[in-house]
Amino acid sequence: MKKIKDVSEFQELRQTLLAAYDPDQPVARVCLGPGCLALGAEKVSQTFKSALKKKKGSFKVQPLIKATGCHGFCSQGTLVSLAPLDLMYVRVKPEDVPEIVETSLIKGKAVERLLYSDNGTRYKSAAEIPFYRAQQKIVLKNVGVVDPLDIQDAIRSGAYQSMAKALLEMSPDEVLKTVEVSGLRGRGGGGFPTGYKWRRAAENARENPGPAYLIANGEEGDPGAFMDRAIMEGDPHAVIEGMIIGGFAMGAHEGFLYVRHEYPIAIQHLSVALQQARALGLVGKNILGTGFDFELHLHRGAGAYVCGEETAIIASLEGRVGEPVVRPPYPVEEGLWNRPTVINNVETWANVPHIVNMGADSYTNLGVPQSTGTKIFSLVGKVKNSGLVEVPMGISLGTLVEGIGGGVPGQGRFKAVQTGGPSGGIIPYELRDITSEGVKQEPAKAVPDEKKGLSVDFDSMAKTGSIMGGGGMIVMDDHDCVVDLARYFLRFLHEESCGKCLPCRLGLQGMLGFLDNFARGQGTPEDIDALESLGQALVDGSLCGLGRSAPNPVLTSIRYFRDEYLAHIVDHKCPAGVCRDLITYSIDPETCDGCGLCAKHCPEACISGKKKKLFTIDTAACIRCGVCREVCPVDAVLVA
Amino acid sequence: MSSKKRKKDGPIDFTIDGQKVQAQEGWTILETARHYHIPIPTLCYHPAVHPWGSCRLCVVEIRQDGRANVTASCLAKPVAGIEVLTDSERVQNVRQWVLEMLLAECPASQEIKELAAQHGVTSTRFAITDPNEECLKCGRCVAVCNEVVGAQALTFGSRGVKKRLETPYRVPNNMCIGCGCCVSVCPTGALQARLDTVRGDISRRTGHGFAH
Question: Hey, is the C-beta of A510 within 8 angstroms of any chain B C-beta?
């Protein structure tokens, strides 16, 4: 690839690429997102390629196999979408590939059995599937569509067009204003107004002449969250482009992509994207002949969760131990090497090209007034359609979980939703019908009204005691215990606490001690109050956001599910049947059909019985692992 | 630091526990309180080194524009017109719990026991892992070695509850010049034993610790 000297060469390149594109060429996009990869998508992609070789000559136009980023519908992986047929195949196995090639790529027809079906309806196009229907893909527009390892494919799909627009048609101040007016707020969870942050940094850099720095925070460590990962893996150029535009607006010429070590594919894709962009002259000196320089460096995090905290990122980049320091001074005043620094989440940066492209006014039309735009969520847990979703802000929690997510599989209602990862909180089912004005809506309908119910935006979520957070959304049902969940997150943060300040280091251990007791049925009701007061001490007393938000899951679960805590302590019962010390397994003689599967799978061999007769569990030897309950085909294993 | 210069130069007027105070430019809330003899307990704070903010004992509540925030006074710079409370309910809650944590963190320290007792804390609900521990990982020794002595012979290793005071990379090093500054700034005398092995136990002779 030749270096692009000016904008006309860049547009020429795009026109050439567009002209070379044949709309009739069959394209099969194989999802290589983390979920599908785990299900063997790599093999599917390879089988496609070898099948094409075998069938060479039987095509009018040789089809193209694209390995793309996440398509979103993770619970149905491996996903393969076909263009221009506009078909979406789910649960594709390598052995299905020859049939897809024969029927779809050669004959242009659908393989009915691989289409997504729900309640007897078959959906051909992805856009028709309920999971996708209510979504609005802005940031994820190119994720799952373009080949992340091919910059030409990205440029054809419009990458770096916003950068060209900003650099050539706008002044830095106009770009800043656009971001300010767009109302974009930090997608990492804090929801801080991005435009204001940029303005402060730009002013500080002007008052104190010298370099300013940009950092993309790709240290996405929340359990159950993979939004940034999908962007970095599926559309790395969006992040790079957003940072260049940001650099132009703020007069910064150097940026850092701080990506966690645990995301090797994201690191690989970003570094390939950077290499290719540099080779084309889209990153580096004199971008598009405008005289604007911007250099980007990729930096791997060393595996500490706390390095998602902005001052800890700075420490880590400077080569110091990744520990947070007290703000103020904020990074926009004194950040990296004591220079004004803007740290934005990957998703925030990826929003910027779209804002510049569509203009601030159209962007504010998305979402609700105080929270504009869209937000990506990773919808996981006890939900039928788990995966990656992008929805306009202000969508109701009900629509998100029950509409897009399809609700709890098999049975009725969800119990609660844990949002915002370990720093977030638990929102009970009951709040799904409460609007931000506190008015309770009519009882739930089968398909919840999009505009009614708890609005998913920064401010409404904060009012419930939880936070929007990075976008992790874990759905819980009646088989999930809130004490256990709070304990799980607390243990995670206890592991990840840097140990600099006392409340976080020892306080989390103390809180964990209380919860461990509760899970064993020990403790007194007064201990719940003590736990709340200790939690408040951590919220007030800790040094950084990790400690200050760590008690959230505990505090919200006590606020909404105090009864469940009391059941553990007073009645020594775990209503959800999770806490092992408080439950016993038994087999219901009425339902048991004597198949013996439970006995076959029991790791302790403590289930006895004869085929076609009743099986029984030896409670004394039972370790309460729950395997029998999982394998029982007639749900005869009871937990009490 | 040059970039730290604020536009508003000159003294800053605000209140601490209702008392009108004036901070000189660059003073922290803690320094202002000390100037007016308003007591705020501290452990990790030492005037010779940059504040580190690890012990959280010096937290105060700051009320400003109808909002209240609890923060460490050793690091917080005052802004004109704020109301600082050194003994509000929220501050007391943090302080009580921190003192309980300290009793569990360094159960062998007489200094900590006395400090806790002054605030009415005599027992702890936290698990004690090492009854002989005196170090609270406040970071004074590390800071003085880095900032004052310039030897950088001490550092913290590991993270979370496993955090320990160590030499860099856990190997003996010849950066230590044996000045004893780390021992003398330690608020609990946790490093005393090291020095005692060299020159004998002074406290046994005088009845006083070396730590203050």
Answer: yes
Would you state the structure tokens that stand for residue A580, as one six-digit string?
A: 């092992």
Give the integer Cα–Cα distance in Å for A383 and A379. 8
This complex has an ipTM of 0.88
- Residue B39: count of CB within 10 angstroms of its CB: 10
As a CATH number, domain A151-364 is 3.40.50.11540
The verdict on a CB contact (< 8 Å) between A540 and B4 is no
Give the residue from chain B lying closest to A492, CA to CA. B160
The pLDDT-based confidence of B10 (bands split at 50, 70, 90) is confident
Greater model confidence, A575 or A58: A575
Q: Give the integer Cα–Cα distance in Å for B118 and B115.
A: 5
Condensed to tens digits (0 to 9), the pLDDT of residues A228-240 reads 999 999 999 999 9
Q: Report how far residue A102's alpha carbon sits from residue A597's, in angstroms, rounded to the nearest whole number.
A: 41
Kindly list the residues from chain B whose CB atom is less than 8 angstroms away from the CB atom of residue A530: 125
Q: Average pLDDT of B131-136?
A: 90
Whether residues B84 and B144 share a domain: the answer is: no
Secondary structure (3-state) at A451:
coil
The phi, psi pair for A378, rounded to 5°, reads -105, 110
8-state DSSP, A345? E
The answer to whether A25 touches A63, Cβ cutoff 8 Å, is: yes
3-state helix, strand, coil in chain B (%, to 5): 35, 15, 50
- Domain containing B25: what range? 9-88
- Beta A64-68 vs A27-31: how paired, if at all? parallel
Nearest to A506 among B1, B90, B101 (CB): B101
Candidates A494, A499, A502; nearest CB to B101: A502
Q: Does domain A367-476 have CATH number 3.10.20.600?
A: yes
- Would you say residue B153 has pLDDT above 70? yes
Q: Radius of gyration over alpha carbons of chain A, in Å?
A: 26
Pair A305, A314: CB distance under 8 Å? no
What is A482-569's CATH number?
Answer: 1.20.1440.230
In angstroms, the CA A308 to CA A496 distance is 11
Cα gap A79→A101, rounded to integer Å: 15
DSSP-based three-state secondary structure for A258: strand
In angstroms, the CA A255 to CA A366 distance is 29
What CATH number has the domain spanning A584-639?
A: 3.30.70.20
Please answer whether residues A210 and A221 qualify as being in contact, where contact means their C-beta atoms are separated by less than 8 angstroms: no
Interchain contact A338–B (C-beta under 8 A): yes
Q: What are B13's strand-pairing partners?
A: B22
B160 to A499: CB separation less than 8 angstroms, yes or no: yes
Q: How many domains does chain B have?
A: 2
Nearest CA in chain B to A330: B4
Average pLDDT over residues A164-171: 94
- The reported pTM is 0.89
Burial A529-539 (b: 16+ CB within 10 A, else e): ebbbebbbbbb
What is the spatial distance between Cα A501 and Cα B54, in angstroms, rounded to a whole number?
A: 4
- Give domain status of residue B148, yes or no: yes
Q: Cα–Cα distances in Å, from A522 out to A368, A528, A552, A582, B109?
A: 46, 11, 22, 10, 31
Phi, psi of A175 (to 5 degrees): -65, -45
pLDDT category of residue B158 using cuts at 50, 70 and 90? confident
A201-A204-A206-A211 Cα dihedral, nearest 10 degrees: -70
